[in-house]
Each structure stands twice: as structure tokens, then as C-alpha cells.
Specification:
By secondary structure, the protein is of the alpha/beta class. Helices cover about 35% and strands about 20% of the residues. The chain has 2 domains: about 180 residues, Rossmann fold (3-Layer(aba) Sandwich), CATH 3.40.50.2000; about 170 residues, Glycogen Phosphorylase B (Rossmann fold), CATH 3.40.50.2000. α8 links the parallel β8 and β9. α4 packs antiparallel against α5 and α8 runs parallel beside α9. The model has no long low-confidence stretch (mean pLDDT about 90).
């Protein structure tokens, strides 16, 4: 007969600046939701309001919304909540939230601080030029040395710190993004109704400059694309009007469709012949991992960060990587329609399976 552990459970505070429907948010909430409740008591804090994806957070996890408009205005309120909760471990993700958490470390010597950097730092530096870029560099160079542990979802991110920013941190480790395949499978129908003569491409992501949908559509407009095809883009964002104007400019209204944000995009992914990752930069593209879990292979620009790690773990044409947007469109043109009628077997490498990642995460928590 096994004895229950008499070790007290560790209280772990998970913090996000906002509850947006992004990959970083999904990863942190997935980690929080799946840790062993016999060992850990998770608490969730959001600096803003409850947001559009409040239902991602399990009801049995204590939830605090500080209702602050920005990270900079959250300093004292977050300090107070840390003092109130007294967590054994505090963890967050994204550079501005990481900076806030790092600033708290001197005031809570008994708390272990973990930050997650999910983006390629040099890419953010290029996007946020001027004062904001200099602030990011300060955060990377000085504040990132304060936490006990930094986790990132790809070796390319760690290499970028060292090679592009000349910053080497001994406490920087890899934790791949977890993919909850069972959750995805539950959303998929037993059968599809697909046109067997149409090649179906799928892309998911925020409609912003980073995701590269503008250059993809321009390249498609310039190409002599054979056969019948359609591209479904799932997501919303500030570039929506610009992308719509490009679709009209290149007469692609019958081929490219903006489907808006979907909380569970996996049915569309599973029906696709090829998932498209046209990003100018990424950390570890979670939607590409989810596409593989749906049985749909991925075509990616090399610039999309951690996809290179994924490619090294797969075989055949599960993940294709190209160097230019012209090569990207050429690879699309070679895709044949499968006319899927049922979901296909997962192509996701075992390194990203939920149980495997949660086990690795718990080792980091206990170390």
C-alpha cells in the first residue's frame, strides 16, 4: 500500500499581462492546468482584465485580475498580490512581464522566480527600434540575470541571445511547448466533406507584420499558380484591412479567405493539405505543432525560429523549410490535393507530447 507524501504542496503563481488568445498565453495556461495537484497549488494572476480567453483557465484555480492598463502601472499591485499569496514559485512569460517579475526578486528571497522567453530577442529588437528597443536590450542584459531560471521553447532562442546580443546566461534551459493532443482530438469530427480537386492551405495567427501574411499574398499574386486551391487564414489583428486590400489588388478573392479568430482552429487544420508558416520571425510556433498533431504537414520560412528544431525531429516531408518567399510559393504549387475525408494520424514528435513536457517542467520546478 502506497503512502501519501507528507511534503507540503508548493504554491505556484502563474502571471500573464493580458488574457489574449496567443501562443504564449496558451502555453503558460497549459503548463499551469496540467501540473500535479497533489504536489502543487497553482494560482493565476492577470495584470489586466479577464480577457477573451478566461475560459482557458480551469475553474478550480484561484484567479486574480488586477485590472491594470499596462505592465508599468501594475508594479505596486503585483507587489501586493505577491506579498498576499506568498508563492514558493512565481512564473511568467513575455519580455515586459518578465521584467516586472525580475524586479520583484530582491523583495521575496524565499520565492523561486522563473521567466519564460518565447520570442527571438534580436527580432524583437529589430521591431521595437529606438527607445523601446533600448529598453528591451536593458531588460535582456541586466534583468534577465536576476531570476533563478529562464526557460525557452527552442535552442534557436538561446543561440540568438549568445550570437546576436552577446548575452550568455547559465540559467537558460529549453522547455518545448506542450501540445494537448487529446484535447485537439476531441474537437475533430469523425468525417470531413472536402472537395477532392481543391488544394487546401491553412494558416493561423494574429494578423500583424510578424506573421508575414502580406508578403505571402503578394507572392501568390505574382505567381502563376496551377490548379484549384484555397487558403484559409484564421485570426484577427491590426493588419486585417491591409491584407484584405492585397487580396483584392491581386484578384485573389476566390482563393484567399480571412476567417477571423477561432478558439479551436483544429478542424480547419485537420482538413488542410498543408499548413503555412510565413512568419518573419517566431519563437516556437505553437500553431505549427498543433497542425502536426492534426496530421497536417507544415511548410515554413526558415526565419520562423524554432521550426528548425521541429524539422530535426521529423522525417520525410513532415516539415518543409525554405529560405525565400518565392521558394515558399513554389513548394505550395507542388502540393497535391488529398481530399481528406477523415482526420489523419498525428505527425507531432513525442518531444512535444503533453505528459513528457509536464514531467520536464515539474523537474524544473523541484530543482
Amino acid at each position: 500500500m502506497s503512502m501519501m507524501s507528507t511534503e507540503p504542496k508548493k504554491k505556484i503563481l502563474f502571471m500573464l499581462p493580458l488574457l489574449n488568445a496567443g501562443g504564449a498565453e496558451r502555453v503558460l495556461i497549459t503548463l499551469m492546468s496540467n501540473i500535479d495537484r497533489d504536489k502543487y497549488d497553482p494560482v493565476f494572476v492577470v495584470l489586466g482584465d479577464e480577457g477573451r480567453v478566461r475560459d482557458w483557465v480551469p475553474d478550480d484555480i484561484p484567479f486574480y485580475a488586477l485590472n491594470k492598463k499596462s505592465v508599468s502601472r501594475s508594479l505596486y499591485a503585483f507587489f501586493k498580490i505577491l506579498r498576499q499569496i506568498k508563492p514558493d514559485i512565481a512564473i511568467t512569460t513575455m519580455v515586459h512581464a518578465n521584467a516586472l517579475l525580475a524586479l520583484m526578486k530582491p523583495f521575496f528571497p524565499r520565492t523561486k522566480f522563473i521567466i519564460r522567453e518565447s520570442s527571438t530577442p534580436s527580432a524583437l529588437m529589430n521591431e521595437y527600434y529606438g527607445r523601446k528597443g533600448k529598453l528591451n536590450l536593458y531588460v535582456y542584459r541586466y534583468l534577465y540575470r536576476l531570476p533563478h531560471l529562464i526557460i525557452s521553447p527552442a535552442q534557436s532562442i538561446i543561440d540568438d541571445f549568445k550570437d546576436k546580443l552577446c548575452i550568455t546566461m547559465k540559467n537558460h534551459q529549453i522547455l518545448y511547448n506542450p501540445v494537448d493532443e487529446e484535447k485537439i482530438k476531441k474537437t475533430l469530427p469523425q468525417a470531413f466533406d472536402n472537395d477532392k480537386g481543391v488544394v487546401r492551405f491553412v494558416a493561423v495567427g494574429r494578423l500583424n507584420f510578424e506573421k508575414g501574411f502580406d508578403r505571402l499574398i503578394a507572392a501568390l499574386g505574382r505567381a502563376d499558380f496551377p490548379g484549384k486551391w484555397q487558403l484559409d487564414i484564421l485570426g484577427d489583428g491590426p493588419e486585417r484591412d491591409n491584407i484584405l486590400s492585397l487580396i483584392k489588388k491581386y484578384n485573389l478573392e476566390n482563393n484567399v479567405f480571412l476567417k477571423g479568430y477561432q478558439d479551436a482552429p483544429w478542424v480547419t487544420m485537420a482538413q488542410g493539405d498543408l499548413y503555412l508558416l510565413s512568419s518573419r520571425w517566431e519563437g516556437m510556433p505553437n500553431v505549427a505543432l498543433e497542425s502536426l498533431a492534426c496530421g497536417t504537414p507544415v511548410l515554413s520560412m526558415r526565419e520562423a525560429g524554432g521550426i528548425v528544431d521541429v524539422n530535426a525531429m521529423t522525417s520525410n516531408d513532415t516539415v518543409q523549410i525554405v529560405d525565400t518567399i518565392e521558394d515558399f510559393v513554389m513548394a505550395m504549387a507542388q502540393t497535391k490535393p488529398k481530399g481528406k475525408t477523415v482526420p489523419e494520424k498525428s505527425l507531432l514528435p513525442k518531444e512535444f507530447e503533453l505528459a513528457h513536457i509536464i514531467n520536464n517542467f515539474e523537474v524544473m520546478l523541484d530543482d
